[in-house]
Amino acid sequence: MRRLILGILGCGLLLGVWYLAVDVLALGRFGSLPPLAEVLTEWTSHEPAYGTSLFTHNYYADIWISVRRVLEAFVLAVVLGVPLGLAIGWSRRFRELTFPVLELIRPIPILAWVPLAILMFPRGEQPVIFLTFLSAFFVMTLNTLLGVQSVDRDLVRAARSLGASPRDVLRTVIMPGALPYVTTGMKIAIGVSWFSLVAGEMVAGQSGLGYLINSSYATVRYPTIVIGMLTLGIVGFATSAAIGALTGRLAPHRTRAAAA
Amino acid sequence: MSRGAILRGALGILAFLALWELGARLDAPIVGVLPGPADVASSFAGLVGSGGYWESWLASGERVLWGFVAAMSVGVPFGLLLAINQRAKALLFPPFEILRPIPPLAWVPLSILFWPTQNLSIEFVIFLGAFYTVVLNVVGGAEQIDRRHVLVARSLGAGTWTVYRRVILPATLPSIATGAVVGMGITWEVVVAAELISGGGGANDGGGLGFLLWNAYQGGAIAQVIVCMISLGVAGYASSVVVRVLSERLMPWKEAR
Amino acid sequence: MNAASLQIEDVAKSYRNQSGELVALSSCSIEIAPEELHVIVGPSGCGKTTLLNAVAGFQGIDGGLIRLGGETLCTAERPAEPGADRVVVFQHSTLFPWRTVLDNVTYGPVIQGRRSRAEARSLARERLSQAGLAGLEDRYPAELSSGAQRRVEIVRALVNEPRVLLLDEPFRGMDQITRDLMHEALLELYDRARPTVLFITHDIEEAVFLGSRVTAMSARPGRVKATIEIDLPRPREAGLRASARFNELLADVLSLVHDEASRAFVAGDREAA
């Protein structure tokens, strides 16, 4: 209970500092930022001065576009990254052949791919989804690989000595054993997806929350920038929570053991 | 690593380059629009001699460095404070968690509005990107300290301050180091994005690899774009190695495994 | 039960590391009769685990021969593949944490295609309840005590009716009281099914209490020092530990092992378990 009060107090403190520094005192550079009161009125206004609020259609359209892009990229990254990570972790040959290539490409910052993404996938949605996918894909592949490598070697041996073939081992030991890392990877990947999506939309997008923020800056609709940022925070948090809840179901033995 | 592993690794990379070159030459779908590795190599040879290319390295590197240093020097004490003081955590962690889901790049416009120079605004966004990771790692690490270490120190006569300095800080070092390595990785992601978003640099803004990349793209010099991508990869990788090596120096006991 | 004999003939194995070659096993020969519970006891680094791994098919050997039921199991040229005729129980739990107790026990028969899932389940229930584990079928391993985990693991191995059961220090790290109870539980299972057992330990009391015969090994290079017949009657119960004969045998094995262990102790060798 005291924690809750302190937590609310902390959040109030954040808003208070914002209100005081920008709205009331307009201290130096803080004066150039959008005031708290203006952002709140704009956000909840039926007739927003800058065109985006809780009651405008375009607000939800932008949210939906961003969410859809993230989910598409995320699903694609899981569907492609997990099998690749399994293959790299499972087959030494395959790992030796492909892992160096992956490790060469991986350090390149995702946003440095923007020009190539636009060139290679010229149609509308595609460049942004590609960028978002790419960042999540590396996370999923790498985490799955780590998951495979984390499986206790003696579990593999035990399965073999109980009569499992290597293929059985992959299915009954490696895959469930790597699962905790895969689910962790999914939680990281969804965060990384939002990171790249926003950057991608800001640089190369024509729509979505990142685009809303950037275009609001260009057209001097400063309160809308903050609305976009806060919305991103909320939506990003919600998707992470959804992934967390979803992955929690995948491993009943862990939840039960934790409860015991 | 065995000789076979190195050979196969080299083979994999060669195959990748060959496929890329082939795809570029034959106008294969997707890859066909790109220049091949040979063009990229010759573009690189052209850039190496130019001062502007190396200045871009320096400019981006400097931003990363300052953003990173700021994230470490604010993030480590902040994280320790949250880990040590329950009340501070109850008060400050919720607003931290509320701000955290906002992607750092979304801060670019506000950052530009707030900070007087473009450099400062980019450095601020870099700072943000690394800050969350550093704090989370420090908090996680400090909370997982074996209570017995603290008790042992107490029973050996250590005071509160000595416990912080001689037990909690060194025991948290591995997580601080992890935070630093991951944080450093993020800084390079952010610097490129921030440089791109703030819309290409004027001559007096000191350039940067992200700017160079964007300008090359606008000028249609795709080979140069790829050179910039590779340079960024190398820069990011090298920075991570530096951070890792430095952190290993700080923790000689971790080597004896 | 199809308990088989196990013959280890002149087996040699070396490892290479930075400081040169380490001879783990050198001309090591042991004969184990069908239905015998054979214990190998020796200090850390005497190559006993290496030997067990060779039988299990996890590692190859450099020389010699291992026979199972009279047929060649492995040679230096032809290492054995792991298989359900030689099930291993390891030092630490290798129960699959994501499977319930019941699904752990049915794993072997189902994966080998020897039994349908339903058959395997009813067999597993029967064996679990014989071992006093009824009621735990739907628990996950993490929800069990370490003693119960071990017993489930032994049941999981025995349900495959292996020709030889390989136990690699299965009770290491347990407290004395649990360990004594585990010994009785193991012997009960052994007396019921009478498999051939190769049991590895560095605990001499455990060796004498469990074994039909005990082979003492020396370290670096790993070699058989002597094999002692344990002529204690079965079924064995806890009270046996206080008997004069038990303590005589204990002293015999102890004297065989002691000077070896102290040599390794003085040399300060790190445990290579």
Give the helix proportion of chain B (percent range): over 70%
Which runs of chain B of at least 5 residues are low in confidence (pLDDT < 50)?
none
Give the strand tally of chain A. Answer: 0
What is the subunit organization of this protein? heterotrimer
- What is the ordering of alpha helices and beta strands of chain B? HHHHHHHHHH
| End-to-end C-alpha gap of chain B | 19 Å
Based on secondary structure, the structural category of chain A is mainly alpha
Taken as a percent bin, the fraction of beta residues of chain B is under 5%
Q: What fraction strand of chain A? A: under 5%
What this model shows, in words?
By secondary structure, chain A is an all-alpha fold. In chain A, 78% of the residues lie in helices and 0% in strands. Chain A is built from 11 helices and no strands. In chain A, 47% of the residues are buried. Chain B is mainly alpha-helical. In chain B, helix 3 (51-84) runs antiparallel to helix 8 (160-197), helix 3 (51-84) packs across helix 9 (209-218) and helix 9 (209-218) runs antiparallel to helix 10 (222-250). Chain B is globular, with a radius of gyration of 23 Å. Helices cover 35% and strands 25% of the residues of chain C. Chain C is globular and about 50 Å long. The two termini of chain C are 31 Å apart. At the A-B interface, helix 1, helix 4, helix 5, helix 8 and helix 9 of A face helix 1, helix 4, helix 5, helix 8 and helix 9 of B.
